[in-house]
Specification:
The structure is a single chain. This protein is an alpha/beta fold. The chain has a single domain, classed as Carbamate kinase (3-Layer(aba) Sandwich), CATH 3.40.1160.10. It contains ten helices and twelve strands. The strands form three sheets. An eight-stranded mixed sheet has the order 3-6-2-1-9-11-12-10, with helices on both faces. The protein has a two-stranded antiparallel sheet with strand order 4-5. Strand 4 and strand 5 form a beta hairpin. Helix 2 runs parallel beside helix 10, helix 3 runs antiparallel to helix 4 and helix 7 packs parallel to helix 9. The longest helix has 26 residues. About 3% of the residues have low confidence.
């Protein structure tokens, strides 16, 4: 009997300052690492962590317009710089998790996802499945991917985790949920209050209240987060959007305890 799996997405704007290129929010990363450790120790559940790029890869991605594909010779330099920036932040995150005694293992999406016209063409997830068999902690991130039609594209952490979550379901894992850790207590309505539940029936009603994200971002912000969560919810993986810095919230959410945030269901 496989242990349950919880996917955790750490917002790039949570662990970096998007207004300042290549700037880490050290306290936020410290809190997240402690919460991940607490969640593993107190629940015994398998965790897969994914983090956004924040002010690291989004800067060269915007400079070279990498999200639009290969536009000319300079695009190849852009692919290299975006991949490097994303990986640099990932090594910082993994180093902090290792410091806490967690068996964190870096996964580069650029090496195991291949796209075709913005759709998944091929993937190599067997390594991640084996890491979960070993009860280790895979850590992936938003990245630049090669696309056989467009040349390249940017995949958000939400989509990267989504593809993986569906694969794990097909492999017989019980994927309980995906938890999104950001800077807000869930999704806010037009009055600034937390929406308790978003589903297929009420999404259009709340959609106008959803904006983008602060700073430089080429992956879509809050509305993208909710749309990707709805897609996963329809596949059987519900979502939860919470404040990642509020100490204790993440570990409680992994346990299944009630926390302030927005549930995303089918």
């Amino acid at each position: 009997m496989k242990k349950p799996v919880v996917l955790i997405k750490i917002g790039g704007s949570l662990i970096t300052d998007k207004a300042k290129p290549f700037t880490l929010r050290k306290r936020a990363l410290e809190v997240i690492a402690e919460e991940v450790k607490k969640a593993r120790e107190e629940t015994g559940k398998l965790l897969v962590l994914g983090h956004g790029g924040g002010s690291f890869p989004h800067v060269p991605a915007k400079k070279y317009k990498t999200h639009l594909g290969v536009l000319g010779k300079k695009s190849y330099q852009g692919i290299a710089e975006v991949q490097d920036a994303a990986a640099r932040l990932n090594r910082i995150v993994v180093a902090k998790l290792l410091e806490k005694g967690l068996p964190a293992f870096s996964i580069n999406p650029s090496s195991c996802y291949l796209m075709e016209d913005d759709k998944l063409k091929a993937s190599f997830f067997e390594v991640i499945r084996k890491l979960l068999d070993f009860e280790m902690l895979p850590v992936l991130y938003g990245d630049v991917l090669l696309d056989v039609k467009r040349g390249c594209m940017i995949i958000s952490t939400e989509r990267a985790l989504g593809y993986l979550g569906i694969y794990l379901l097909k492999q017989g894992f019980k994927v309980e949920k995906i938890i999104h850790c950001g800077q807000t207590n869930g999704v806010y309505d037009e009055d600034g209050k937390t929406i308790k539940l978003i589903n297929s029936a009420n999404f259009e009603h709340y959609k106008k209240a959803l904006g983008g994200s602060g700073g430089v971002d080429v992956t879509g912000g809050m509305i993208h987060k909710v749309e990707e969560s709805l897609k996963l919810a329809k596949k059987g993986i519900p979502g939860l959007i919470i404040d990642g810095v509020e100490h204790g919230t993440l570990s409680k959410a992994v346990k299944g305890e009630k926390v302030l945030g927005t549930r995303v269901e089918r």
